Amino acid sequence: MTETAPAALTESWLFFRRWLADPWAMGSIAPSSRSLRRRITREIRCDANEVVVEFGGGTGPVTAAILESGIPADRLFSFELDQDLARHLRQRCPAVTVLAEDCRKAPELLGESLCGKVGTVVIGIPMITFPLAFQREVLDATFRILRPGGRFLLYSFMPHSPLDRAALGLEGRRLAFTLQNLPPASVWGYWRA
């Protein structure tokens, strides 16, 4: 699933246009780099009877990297609220279930059969740009679908934790960092305190 130069340029242009339209929702001016994608996929945990869920699939570089890491497409679900990005993501990763829905609806949309059977939730939403109430709603949905005792991953461009762990009842730590991303990025792992 290697991108050609014109495809990568088209994807970067789409991402940049969406960033111009709503910089706070996008959080970055460019898609995740190969270096960041490797650091994210190294931290994904998914047992044989579990799935992986992505919140904020964007143009799909992390989605594609998850597939390349060995997670089968039928065990990957990606939420992308932006209709243009969701359309692009479906074209890029046609075998992945892409839900053009608010990730806070994940428990209802995934259903009882998958709630509690999500090995890892990967959050690509720039959570730090949203109010605490929104963050709580996203995390409530996250913990309702995660396996018991599971953790979620969040990648961020902040040098410190993008989530207020005390206010949100979380434990967490930075798992990885890369300067080879625009801007430099960290991968954080969080679990209930």
Automatic annotation (TrEMBL):
It comes from the Bacteria. Signal peptide: none annotated. It comes from Azospirillum lipoferum (strain 4B). Keywords: Methyltransferase, S-adenosyl-L-methionine, Transferase. Gene3D superfamilies: Vaccinia Virus protein VP39. This is Phospholipid N-methyltransferase. Residues 36-174 form the Ribosomal RNA adenine methylase transferase N-terminal domain. Transmembrane segments: none annotated. GO terms for molecular function: rRNA (adenine-N6,N6-)-dimethyltransferase activity. InterPro entries: rRNA_Ade_Mease_Trfase_CS, rRNA_Ade_methylase_Trfase_N, SAM-dependent_MTases_sf. The keyword Transferase applies. The lineage of its organism: Bacteria, Pseudomonadati, Pseudomonadota, Alphaproteobacteria, Rhodospirillales.
